[in-house]
Design a protein that fits this description.
CATH class: Mainly Alpha
Largest sheet: none
CATH architecture: Orthogonal Bundle
Number of helices: 6
Radius of gyration: 13 Å
Number of strands: 0
CATH superfamily: Barrier-to-autointegration factor, BAF
CATH topology: DNA polymerase, domain 1
């Protein structure tokens, strides 16, 4: 497993930016892996902020497969979007919880 700076060097700029600070009032589109189109779908379902999407992930007990299935089936995410956004939230939890 990568440590500290090595780990950050292997992250996309968007993921690195998301993990650089607490979640605060960030819009859901700030979550790495969430495209503009997926963000629209999420907003229409009431997930307009990153913290509401994080809440859904936590309600699913951080079960990555369940969360990815939910994103794909209920929100119209692609597999890639589901994997990237799940990883983003998982990494955020590792950093801040």
């Amino acid at each position: 497993m990568l440590q500290g700076n090595q780990r950050m060097n292997h992250m996309s700029p968007r993921l690195r930016a998301f993990l650089s600070e607490p979640i605060g009032e960030k819009d859901v589109v700030c979550v790495d892996g969430i495209s503009h189109e997926l963000a629209i779908n999420l907003v229409t379902k009431g997930f307009n902020k990153a913290y509401t999407l994080l809440g859904q992930f936590l309600l699913m007990h951080k079960n990555e497969m369940e969360f990815q299935r939910w994103l794909i089936c209920c929100c119209g995410a692609t597999e890639c979007e589901a994997q990237e956004s799940t990883n983003c939230l998982k990494e955020w939890c590792s950093c801040f919880l």
